[in-house]
Amino acid sequence: MTPSADLDAYIAGLPKAELHLHIEGSLEPELMFELARRNGVAIPYDSVEAVRAAYDFSNLQDFLDIYYAGAAVLLTRQDFEDLAFAYFQRAAADNVRHAEIFFDPQTHTDRGVPFGLVVEGLIAGMDRAKAELGVSSGLILSFLRHLTEEEAFATLDAAKPYLHHFIGVGLDSSEVGHPPSKFQRVFAAARDLGLKLCAHAGEEGPPAYVHEALDLLHIDRMDHGNRSMEDEALIERLAREQMTLTVCPLSNLKLCVVDDLKNHPVPQMLRRGLHVTLNSDDPSYFGGYVNDNYSRLAEAVGLTHEQVTQLARNSFEGAFLPEADKAARIAEVDAYARSAGVLG
Ligand code: HPA
Ligand code: ZN
């Protein structure tokens, strides 16, 4: 076996958690066509190949425009269940044992799809994944930051009857021009409801947005965080506080956050002691699920078996799971590493 084939096989068998996945971004073109047909919704593409060919982005907004348009085929409870279960089948094939998935309720409620229908469909898919695939999961309600604070509060209100279904809230969509400070009060209200807090920060936005996410939103976990590497004091703080970063290499490449995977900041993040995890973000749009993110990054920057093991450990450590569960799952990672001769 070549060294990279050996590392790919090791990655494939490694137990992992996925902490940064937008369920709407896992809508594969084949399912998009099936749902369009089932629901009688027109889509502006002739074929699956034409959809894939449209996935050529120069920045975050290019992607978001297509991603929101694609979600228009999702209408019924069954659609959301099918979407979720299709993701979990891919995740299980990658040995993902636990996933904390975002959904964007406003993308659906703004089209007249009821909040409860979306949640019930996704939860049905998550329950099936646990029963049939052995993959556990949690659901994170993500606010669209290009919309107003008032709309975010209305979304949090709509969520209240379903609160027991959520582990946390997130903040996504167009970053530049929509700083975390805009959602300070919504995040405080979400925390008062007992929810964990995450926010996308430093994907395209400046290090100042990362500071705001920490100081004003008081996040428990940071999504992306790449541009933190421009700010020495921030790097030291993230290392000191052991803030989990949910980094998404293939997303960063497709959205031109990095020009080449060879220049991805993960090796520097690891060297500086940051608590990095690897995730797929919107795998249907960015060309790969979790194992592809590990393997392609490892190949590009030369990660070792020990480093990919650490990334998998971090994924469970950074999950919103009880401490005993985390310890048990990290023990599984370590047992796997020992059986492969990676840990002594
Ligand atoms: N960034 C911001 N918003 C998003 C993303 C992302 O990577 N994916 C889905 N919505
Ligand atoms: Zn994301």
Automatic annotation (TrEMBL):
Gene3D superfamilies tied to this protein:
Metal-dependent hydrolases (3.20.20.140)
Protein's organism: Brevundimonas albigilva
- How many cofactor units bind, and how? Binds 1 zinc ion per subunit.
Protein name, entry field: Adenine deaminase
Q: Where is the Adenosine deaminase domain?
A: 15-335
Enzyme nomenclature, EC number: 3.5.4.2
Q: Which cofactor does it need?
A: Zn(2+)
Active site positions: E203 (proton donor)
Q: Which UniProt keywords apply?
A: Hydrolase, Metal-binding, Nucleotide metabolism, Zinc
The UniProt GO MF terms for this protein read:
hydrolase activity
Q: What is the lineage of its organism?
A: Bacteria, Pseudomonadati, Pseudomonadota, Alphaproteobacteria, Caulobacterales
Chain residues that bind substrate: D282
Record-marked site positions (Important for catalytic activity): H224
Q: What class of enzyme is it?
A: hydrolase
Catalytic activity entry: adenine + H2O + H(+) = hypoxanthine + NH4(+)
InterPro entries named among the record's database cross-references: A_deaminase_dom (IPR001365), ADE (IPR028892), Ado/ade_deaminase (IPR006330), Metal_Hydrolase (IPR032466)
Its function, per the record, reads: Catalyzes the hydrolytic deamination of adenine to hypoxanthine. Plays an important role in the purine salvage pathway and in nitrogen catabolism.
Domain of life assignment: Bacteria
User: Which family does the entry's similarity section mention?
Assistant: Belongs to the metallo-dependent hydrolases superfamily. Adenosine and AMP deaminases family. Adenine deaminase type 2 subfamily.
Where along the chain is Zn(2+) bound? H20, H22, H200, D281
Asked if the Swiss-Prot or TrEMBL record annotates the protein with the keyword Hydrolase, the reply is: yes
